[in-house]
Amino acid sequence: MNVHGLLLAAGAGRRMGMPKALVVDEAGEPWLARAVDVLHEGGCAEVTVVLGAAVEGAVRLLDGRGADVVVAHDWAEGMSASLRTGLGSLAGGSEAALIHLVDLPDVTAAVVRRVLAAGTGPAGLARAAYDGTPGHPVLLGRDHWEPVASAATADRGARAYLRDRDVQLVECGDLATGRDVDVPS
């Protein structure tokens, strides 16, 4: 299945004290670059990064990573703006998009591979689960892109849309916690 990785990294990271797209971990690795690598290594044919609050600094962190960049000019509206911008930018032959968030530093390529193995095509919906709790990444078949974008509001992204659908949960709790990091450690 041809899957396009879509990394949402547009927010200001108010609780973090800086845009999460600019966070660098203790080992000196930018979360943004790491997340792009995870998507590529996990099996996404292409990767698009949605930026907003820190475009210039974040673009420098992506140099040589093989990712396209789109800007969500309305990023302050919340995750929904990033999701709409990202899905709206996807074209070509991708059957599905794998939605990932920049603030999930323990999600690995193994998690991405496992979710992609759901292999559900243009009509499919799958998402990682961590000890039974739904999380990210989320695999959206192409048939869902327009309705997800239409239903996305505020900082909730696809949550309401997914809640009302038969989504295949892919247990990944043995690989990662899937916890987002909202405050500096």
**Envelope shape:** globular
Which architecture name does CATH use?
Alpha-Beta Complex
Structural class: alpha/beta
CA-CA gap between termini: 37 Å
- Total of DSSP H or I helical runs spanning 4+ residues: 6
Instruction: Indicate the proportion of strand residues.
Output: 15-25%
Keywords:
alpha/beta, Spore Coat Polysaccharide Biosynthesis Protein SpsA, Chain A, 7-stranded mixed beta sheet, 6 helices
Structure, described:
This protein is of the alpha/beta class and 185 residues long. The protein has a single domain, classed as Spore Coat Polysaccharide Biosynthesis Protein SpsA, Chain A (Alpha-Beta Complex), CATH 3.90.550.10. The protein is 27% helix and 22% strand. The chain has six helices and seven strands; from the N terminus they run βαβαβαβαββααβ. The protein has helices at residues 31-42, 55-61, 79-89, 109-116, 145-151, 159-163, and strands spanning 3-8, 46-51, 68-71, 96-101, 125-130, 133-141, 168-171. The chain has a seven-stranded mixed β-sheet with strand order 3-2-1-4-6-5-7, with helices on both faces. The radius of gyration is 15 Å and the shape is globular.
What's the helix and strand layout?
Elements: E1 3-8, H1 31-42, E2 46-51, H2 55-61, E3 68-71, H3 79-89, E4 96-101, H4 109-116, E5 125-130, E6 133-141, H5 145-151, H6 159-163, E7 168-171
Parallel strand pairs: 1-2, 1-4, 2-3, 5-7
Antiparallel strand pairs: 4-6, 5-6
Helix pairs in contact: 1-4, 3-5
Gist of the model:
The chain has a single domain, classed as Spore Coat Polysaccharide Biosynthesis Protein SpsA, Chain A (Alpha-Beta Complex), CATH 3.90.550. 27% of the residues lie in helices and 22% in strands.
